[in-house]
Amino acid sequence: MKIEEILSGTPVAGLPGGHFIDGAYTASTRAQMESYDPGRAAPFATFARGTAADIDQAVASAIHAFEKTWRKTPPAERGRILYHAAQLIRDDAERLAIVECLDSGKPLNEALGDVNGAARAFEYYAGACDKLQGDTFPLPQGYLGYSVYEPVGVSAQIIPWNYPISTAARGIAPALAAGCTVVAKPAEQTPFTALQLADILTKAGLPAGVCNVVSGTGAEAGAPLVAHPDVDQITFTGSVATGQAVMRSAADNVTRLVLELGGKSPVVVLNDCDMERALTGVLGAIFENAGQICSAGSRLVIERGIHDAFVGELCARAKKLTIGHGLRDPQLGPVNSAGHLDKIAGFIDRARSRGAEILTGGRTTADPETGEGWFYEPTIVADRPSDDELVREEIFGPVLTVQIADDPEHALALAGDCQYGLVAGIYTGNVSNALKMARDVDAGQIFINEYFAGGVEVPFGGNKLSGFGREKGLEGLRSYCKVKSVAARID
Hints:
By secondary structure, this protein is an alpha/beta fold. The chain is built from 16 helices and 24 strands.
């Protein structure tokens, strides 16, 4: 698969056209949907448009595989299969990254990082398969008490469009490690790497029906999946509004949930920070993947003493970011769709009407080489009050809003004055201030002196409107387990 040929318009060969059910690609029962290349604003492939009937077939396959095969597979053998899958992902990393880039729009190097991260997720949970153990309880003499972790059953995975392969891996890998089977529904904008991932798992030795993928729209495939009475657990990543709808559907069947929803995360930069490290961190926190990250650092809360110098340099660096098609590996790629581009532009247009000062950016643009694609300039907006829309609402684009703090206590108050609680970043040379702020900010994960620090080993998830439950780490593994306690009289 040559990048030059793809950029010249050559069709991408070998992409799946059907769902992946019961260990194989299946023909679509309906007309295909188009998948768009955001860097050109044009379709580049088609995929299957799933229905409730496809979901029923996938869930039935997952139930059969769970009851007959996967839950009975020794944990060490599950680990061997997942580790083999990690190796196969790495072997096919370049092709997967190209497909991810075309589907999502992100720069090629970022896509390659996501693919390697997916491999690492399977590697991590491969090692955890045979280490998921329960406890014994200190009962009186004559009694024995212990607990065991059991897989919950069939897990439904609703995968977002901003990180298709890495989000799929962070949910599918622990589900399989725990002994669950999976039915995944990737976003309609980015279906291909999830489908390819299921095929890779099968090649690694995963039994048929253990991992199924049904592509299509949220209304026609996603909604029937989360409402399915035979689904035992749901992992959803997406918007607050859709997450609330998923909760309502899950309530009818009392289905377990992990919800990773939106964010409006602060990056707190104090006067005593390492300026260069903080500039690099803030720039990446908002402009990586064109700001289309739930945990993006979209609010810069900065102490007044360094505000002018810091923001001035930050704007200068933002203006120098290269823009272009993801396959050319620019520093900033396109946003995912025309509709999303309009949404981002709407936020800035309304801010201008309120008198907001746009320090840099603030306009739609295009690939400078072709004049095509869905692009928005890297944008920084001057100090806004806490009740402003740019401070309160998730934009999900390359837009950073500044808030000026008088001192660390004021910075903490500004950081916490938000309806979301996904992550927060802190840049300071004072360890005591950093740890106190980490203690007091209501967020699921705190980054100190490096935004996006950590990896699959670190639990991830939100508070408040950012959702509940945790993914990654051993906490993520427990999301796919139910605890059984046993107490026996033995005298």
